[in-house]
Amino acid sequence: MKKKLTFILLLTSLLFLFISCNKASIDSENQKVTIEKPIINNESSSTKGNNNVEKSSKAEKKPTTPTPEIKNRDVRLYYYDVNLDKLVYLDTVIEIKDKAVATAIVNALKSPSNNKITPAISSKINIKSASVDLDNDLIRIDFTDNFVKEQNLGSGPEAMTLQAIVNTLGYNFNVNKVKITLGGKPYNSGHFSYNENEYIPVNYNDCVEFK
């Protein structure tokens, strides 16, 4: 009987010891989980912070659009007046953007400031290039190759309109000769043609101020 009682007490002690060990192990595991959670959150926050820095850096590197340089300039523009059958000129002020003087002048010939004046150049025609050669008293200007088609002029109006363009460019660039090409080729409309070395001289005779 005494042996049996001793065995029961021993068994009870072992069972109690086993339960205590398991509880300690569980508590230890819970403690680990509790400690590790904040570390995971910190890493997540750190990653978000880095992304924000990268986004901010990218935003700072975004290029800015340069502000165009705009200046006003006094010019004299020549047009062919059909009613008078002569060239008229108009002194005005135009806006020059980024030093593109020839482009601004041609645009003014397309859109006269007075609606009673016929445009000297069609709005569908553009400049491909322009260069001034002061040593040779010359300006070279190359229009798009749709020039003849878009102007659509008879021989008389074509001659007068060409002279208006030549006088305008010559006067404002202070040269006496203008070489016009179309799409890089010498001017040829069927009514008038010029070889590679030909130019058109300015001619201010019989031009009157538009009033």
From TrEMBL:
Keyword set includes Signal: yes
Signal peptide: 1-24
Disordered: annotated span: 43-68
Superkingdom to which the source organism belongs: Bacteria
Biased composition (Polar residues): 43-54
UniProt keywords, alphabetically: Signal
Domain GerMN residues, every copy: 102-191
InterPro entries in UniProt: GerMN
Pfam families associated with the record: Germane (PF10646)
Stated name of the protein: GerMN domain-containing protein
Organism field: Clostridium chauvoei JF4335
